[in-house]
Amino acid sequence: xxxxxxxxxxxxxxxxxxxxxxxxxxxxxxxxxxxxxxxxxxxxxxxxxxxxxxxxxxxxxxxxxxxxxxxxxxxxxxxxxxxxxxxxxxxxxxxxxxxxxxxxxxxxxxxxxxxxxxxxxxxxxxxxxxxxxxxxxxxxxxxxxxxxxxxxxxxxxxxxxxxxxxxxxxx
Length: 171
Fold this sequence. Notes:
Layout: E1 12-16, H1 20-33, E2 38-42, H2 45-53, E3 69-72, H3 81-89, E4 99-103, H4 108-116, E5 121-124, H5 131-145
Parallel strand pairs: 1-2, 1-3, 3-4, 4-5
């Protein structure tokens, strides 16, 4: 898989989450924080891989662009988050994709395994009333200050949707 810059959208966050209420709180908090951020949900690990690979119903990259960030639940049906993470890190064109584990598990072995498999960050899901603060922090860092990997192969750094203009690279 060799994604092109055209396939990438710095405003899209892919959320691999099977629990409706967890997605609802995320979506609501992101809408309150920044309406320019587009959350796209997949409900299990197989769908996450199909989305990232641009397969089956996700083949249209104009409709389903590569995300700037993946929020990945661990405990999902069909294929768990660990398997998805391992698959991502074995895909040449996706190795640099920021993958933030978003799990209810605070178990040491889950955290360790996630990082061993290449997780970029690990967040334990908050109580419903703490989602707004979490979303603000995640969005400001991952979509603002963080620089995305170059999916196009042209050697340039991609500015994400919320990057402050003062931080933009000059060419």
